[in-house]
Amino acid sequence: MDRRALVLAALFVLAVILPGCSRESPGPVGVPSPAETAAEPTLAPLPDGFRGEWRGLLPCSDCEGIEVELALDRGDEGRFVLVERYLGSAEAGEYRSEGTWSEDACSVAGEPARCLHLQGPDLRWARYPDGSLAAVDGEGRLIDPDGARLQRL
Predict the structure, then answer these.
(1) What pTM was estimated for this model as a whole?
(2) Architecture of domain 1-153 in CATH?
(3) pLDDT tens sequence across 36-49
């Protein structure tokens, strides 16, 4: 075999082998890669018949804080009760909201998540793997950038 034919054969072998090479080796068939896993929410939806309660103190721009209690009952309609107590201001007092809620996939700070939407007061809460909830706006931005959350009881 002459030198030219040998070079062409080597180039052909490289052209066939190199496209299959990558920095990440593929995992087992049917197992998502880390990039694919990061694109999907890691939390499952709350189950049918779910009941839960959360409590926490959220910051307030014109008061000492807002003490929040939230109760969810999936039941037939998905009902909630939200109690907010405004502390240390002229508007101090207790406010109660009731209605229905739903849960859906959402994006919080650019990351996939699960969000609870309280119809009526039109509030959204991002749900975290530790069970806590953080208030988010309609575009998935945390309302309190310092990370105040409601803790599950």
Answers:
(1) 0.71
(2) Beta Barrel (2.40)
(3) 434 454 789 999 99
